[in-house]
């Protein structure tokens, strides 16, 4: 894929968190790319590093988080090197993010109108919009996310709205700045199953209508499959597989992807999966070699020593697993 056809490119990204006593080695050389208009899924268990990756893109990691290596290119702008002004402009006008928890994303002591107008003031800084113009834009955004009685919602406090309504407000706020790319981080957490499907459908329609690119993080694997064209699978701070969405589900290659899909909760199921045996890695002391080796049913000696690289296994599929590496490549890696 040429640079020109890439909207966002993350290259070999390393992120660590530091606490008083420990260093947590979370992202471990992550690379992803997104073309204009492309919808990409990011799946994996909780704690795999998905939120850290999305927050790194917008440079909104908490103070303990540090990007220690890598590149994040938005078109041809390196977001790790650009001026603060350029970064703010991208956050205001180009890339929007839907956060996991709508209650945490909304301030309980201000009305939706006050909060939306505040955000719109920031987005339209320098324009001639009056407060009433911004209120009209806010109202339009609430209509766009199909909220019934948007005037009432605009004048409400968050606690006066249901979980699904609050999440629609959060989506409206993200849309205000997402003119090119939407980062949707578990947009249906804490919502009941029927509302989850409605919210994901709404996001899918809005992304289509506005011709946005999207990175969707969700545990609703069936929805990720239907809403995206390509999926990255993350485990322990690494991308372990990348494939077109339908191929990934029909024929998962990486042992972790196989277990993740096998154990996904299904609405129609004779028996629910029991989850993948073992625990995700402790980021203070991540396992050497393949971070999945303590849980992998196929682990070999090499897996405990050498980190598998993400290699192309055919035209559109990539996997990071020694089972797929050529024998001579394994030898080369062992040297
Ligand atoms: Fe399993 Fe080894 Fe492949 Fe890791 S590299 S997934 S431990 S077979």
Tag the structure with descriptive keywords.
335 residues, Rossmann fold, alpha/beta, binds iron/sulfur cluster, 22% strand
Polypeptide structure, described:
This protein is of the alpha/beta class. The protein has a domain of 192 residues: 3-Layer(aba) Sandwich (Rossmann fold). α5 packs across α7. The longest helix has 17 residues. The protein is globular.
List the helices and strands and how they pair.
Blueprint: E1 8-18, E2 23-34, E3 39-43, H1 50-57, E4 65-74, E5 77-78, H2 84-93, E6 95-98, H3 102-105, H4 112-123, H5 131-144, H6 150-154, H7 163-177, E7 181-185, H8 193-209, E8 213-217, H9 221-227, E9 230-235, E10 238-244, H10 245-250, H11 255-262, E11 311-314, E12 317-319, H12 327-334
Parallel strand pairs: 3-8, 3-9, 6-7, 7-8
Antiparallel strand pairs: 1-2, 1-4, 4-5, 9-10, 10-12, 11-12
Helix pairs in contact: 4-5, 4-7, 5-7, 7-8
């Amino acid at each position: 894929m040429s640079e020109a056809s890439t909207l966002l490119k993350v290259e070999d990204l390393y992120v660590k968190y530091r606490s008083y006593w420990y260093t947590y080695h979370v992202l471990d050389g992550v690379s992803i790319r997104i073309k204009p208009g492309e919808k990409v899924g990011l799946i994996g268990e909780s704690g795999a590093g998905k939120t850290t990756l999305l927050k790194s893109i917008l440079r909104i990691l908490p103070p303990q988080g540090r990007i220690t290596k890598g590149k994040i290119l938005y078109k041809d702008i390196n977001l790790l090197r650009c001026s603060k002004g350029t970064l703010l402009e991208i956050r205001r006008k180009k890339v929007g993010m839907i956060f996991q928890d709508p209650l945490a994303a909304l301030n309980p002591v201000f009305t939706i109108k006050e909060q939306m107008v505040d955000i719109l003031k920031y987005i339209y800084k320098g324009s001639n919009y009056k407060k009433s113009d911004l209120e009209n834009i806010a109202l339009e955004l609430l209509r766009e996310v199909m909220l019934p009685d948007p005037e009432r919602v605009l004048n409400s406090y968050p606690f006066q709205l249901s979980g699904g309504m609050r999440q629609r407000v959060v989506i409206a706020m993200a849309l205000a700045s997402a003119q090119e790319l939407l980062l949707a981080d578990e947009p249906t957490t804490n919502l009941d199953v029927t509302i989850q499907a409605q919210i994901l459908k709404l996001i899918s329609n809005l992304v289509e209508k506005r011709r946005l690119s999207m990175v969707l993080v969700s545990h609703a694997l069936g929805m990720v499959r239907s809403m995206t064209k390509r999926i990255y699978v993350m485990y322990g701070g690494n991308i372990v597989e990348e494939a077109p969405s339908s191929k990934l589900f029909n024929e998962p290659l990486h042992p972790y992807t196989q277990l993740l899909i096998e154990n996904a909760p299904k609405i129609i199921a004779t028996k629910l999966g029991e989850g993948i045996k073992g625990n995700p890695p402790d980021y203070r002391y991540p396992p050497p070699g393949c971070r999945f080796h303590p849980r992998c049913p196929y682990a070999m000696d090499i897996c405990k020593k050498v980190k598998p690289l993400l290699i192309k296994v055919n035209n559109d599929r990539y996997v990071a697993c020694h089972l797929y590496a050529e024998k001579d490549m394994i030898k080369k890696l062992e040297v």
